[in-house]
Amino acid sequence: MNVGVVWGESRDLFQILHQKQLLVLRGMIAAGLTTAAALSLALARPPRSWLPAPGLEASLSHVSTWCMLPLICLALMIAVMARARFLSADDIDAGSDLERGKKTCGYQSILQNTLEQTVLSTATYIIWSVSMPTAMQVVPASAAVLFVAGRVFFFCGYNRGAPARAFGFGLTFYPTVAMMAGIFGRMAAAASQ
User: Fold this and answer.
1) Which CATH architecture has domain 57-186?
2) What is the pLDDT tens value at each position of the chain, 193 positions in all?
3) Which residues in 21-176 belong to E strands, given as ranges?
4) Is 193 exposed, middle or buried (0-12, 13-18, 19+ CB in 10 A)?
5) By CB count within 10 A, which of 10, 131, 168, 181 is most buried?
6) Angle, CA 190 vertex, CA 187 and CA 54 arms, to 5°
7) How far apart are CA 181 and CA 60, in angstroms?
8) Cβ–Cβ under 8 Å, residues 53 and 137
């Protein structure tokens, strides 16, 4: 059994993780640090083209452009899945997981995850655009770029297992979570005034 000790043996809360879990954790931490660095850099030195003009209408127009990146990732994954089904005599009629071949099962899982991530991220980008000041509108743009990079890493690593796809998953998910935390923080601050 290949394990590693995470917290230390002197505590009741120590936890032993399998090597694969440690590798997933490493990918998650790397994605979290990459997200923090990218969003911090974008806020500190925002590219001019990533900021909208002042005003709600400009913010919504601006964010709609950046929402296209996750939607393009979703459309590409749908196309990959359709192509795989078309090219496989076993999968062309597949309607359930029991009938689906191994390759299309993997693609279906990636497609499902991409759909989930796309819905969560685009909704969050839109909410951010109507609730945050203009100077912070660079965040959806940065998150959208990270989303695309994350999907590429996730897709390329998917067949090699959870450790190989952890970074990509995190790079897609963590910017959205950070934005949700920012939105809730702003709402809480507004409610306390």
Assistant:
1) Up-down Bundle (1.20)
2) 444 445 444 443 335 668 888 899 999 999 999 999 999 999 999 888 888 888 899 999 999 999 999 999 999 999 999 999 888 877 777 665 555 566 788 899 999 999 999 999 999 999 999 999 998 999 999 999 999 999 999 999 999 999 999 999 999 999 999 999 999 999 999 999 8
3) none
4) exposed
5) 168
6) 80
7) 20
8) no
